[in-house]
Amino acid sequence: PTPAQLLNISTRARVGTDDNVMIGGFIIRGNANKPVVLRALGPSLTSMSVPANAVLLDPVLSLHGPNGELILRNDNWKDDQRPLIEGTIYQPADDRESVIVATLMPASYTAIVMGKDRTTGIGIVEVYDNDPAVDAQLMNISTRGLVVSGDETIIGGFILGGPNPG
Known about the structure:
By secondary structure, the protein is mostly beta strands. The protein has 1 helix and 10 strands, in the order βββββαβββββ.
């Protein structure tokens, strides 16, 4: 049987400023370039029981390559790549949220989430496999973030899929 594979990896955490921004690292392994979608959400988290006064109101997302170079940066999802996002399952509920659509070669990458104008709050960084049939897989998410307690603890998540998710 075909093994299950990661379709989504994510981390929800408190996003601060300076050294306390949220940094998510992920790996693509395989033999082909992998289409992915990255999102940084804040306001949409109110639908997941995060209080409106606690969310990151205007997340900014930047994607960095294996050598730390900036690949793409997005503040409001409608500003860049709108035709690739609008009407898809990746379209955020709030226009201030950030989305990046990219095709990446197998390597290690970093997604940085910060608040516009140094704002803070609870945010989430997500990486989606945008074509599971490609001979490359999402592997791992590691996150550096501010460690706090209560409703602001760091929470990692993943979704497995495939013909036999076992």
